[in-house]
Amino acid sequence: MAGVIRAKQLFLCSSILSSNNNKVLSRLPRRSINVIAGNLNSSETKKKEKEKRKRRKEIEVEKATAEAVVNKEKRRTRSSRGYELADGDEVPSSHVPVMLGEVLDIFSSVRLRSFVDCTLGAAGHSSSIIQSHSELKNFVGMDVDPVARKLGHFHIDSLMHPTLKASIVLKNFKYIKSVIADTQPELLDVGVDGILMDLGMSSMQVNNPERGFSVLQEGPLDMRMDPQATLTAEDIVNSWPESELGRVLRDYGEESNWYLLQNRIVKARLNGGLHSTGELVDLIRGTSPASRGGRQGWIKTATRVFQGLRIAVNDELKTLQNSLYSSFDVLAPGGRLAVISFHSLEDRVVKQTFLDILGFQREEINGEGSSVKPERQIEERVEKELKEKEEWIKQTVIASKGVILTKRPITPSEEEERLNRRARSAKLRVIQKL
């Protein structure tokens, strides 16, 4: 109401001052005329200042956006390879292997006599590897998901030939050494020529509401990759200490609104707790600020919360780190380990663990640590061989134990990102044993 009165007063003042009615002005005391003029000047000044602040903010946002784009491009190497589908996949509506062409390129120059797929899934990558390498004699496929393992087994069986020995095992890739020892122990002596980890969730898992991974489908708060594991997301949200729950949302989910969500989840325990994905999503929707952009705002928040819970349930980051060390250990000289990650936490673990494997400290990312660098002639020979054989290799980090072939991660081509939405956040890193 006060704002309306103020507006009317300003309009009246403006009308009086803009009129040529000298009689009206002459009847007003000089003090009143000064007050009227001052009010108008003050209003105009505030309006101009508001416009200036708005423009400054727009410029800052434009500048920040431009810098973010530049920095993102600096930190990665976009693949220039054409988008390649696995045989039989015409449209990427079902699960399609991400960066298939890039994976084939990575192993194309390797005499691949043995190969381990740590995340077999539907065997999209492995099927193409087997078809591309007639020299392949030993294959090991691992998956912790029984449904995925069964489907992958079916596809590998269809590609079997008399000279190929294949072992398909229902195990987490953290057991890579023991799996090889139990199934094809000769590989521990000679080493494995190629290992692949695709850390993304398959469409089979996301689209099954009973697994509890989807924010858009009603299901139990499960989120276990291994159905035989005991810990579930329901256990975390209903019984973990408040501080631990907050840590999961903050550190694993990378959610800025973690504290409020933590309090709301703990408060929900007083009313029986949360037992389904729908109940958790409803809580998130009621907690997400309206300023975050309506439906898309809460979906992004829910995605981060689900990510944090899934990582905690499956102990994904620690498992990944330990598995990278074990995988490098079983590589043969010249063998390669390729890892496709799908979010910043995974990529950070892969990047730093590769550096740790070669003996670099965090500050030696540019390869300047003299204690771990090979002799100059070895370095020159490796660089020469890599450049001659493989165009996809842009920048490397070389040490006496091995070479990181992707100083910057390779990301999908624009075509693949357009045709396969799952690929948009993918990053591919490769390390080779010397």
UniProtKB/TrEMBL annotation:
Coiled coil spans: 40-76
UniProt keyword Heme, yes or no: no
GO molecular-function term, one example from the UniProt record: methyltransferase activity
Residues in the signal sequence: none
BP GO annotations: methylation
Sorted UniProt keywords: Coiled coil, Methyltransferase, S-adenosyl-L-methionine, Transferase
Pfam families with a match to the protein in the record: Methyltransf_5
Listed Gene3D superfamilies: Putative methyltransferase TM0872, insert domain, Vaccinia Virus protein VP39
Lineage top rank: taxon: Eukaryota
Family: Belongs to the methyltransferase superfamily. RsmH family.
Name of protein: MraW methylase family protein
Originating species: Arabidopsis thaliana (Mouse-ear cress)
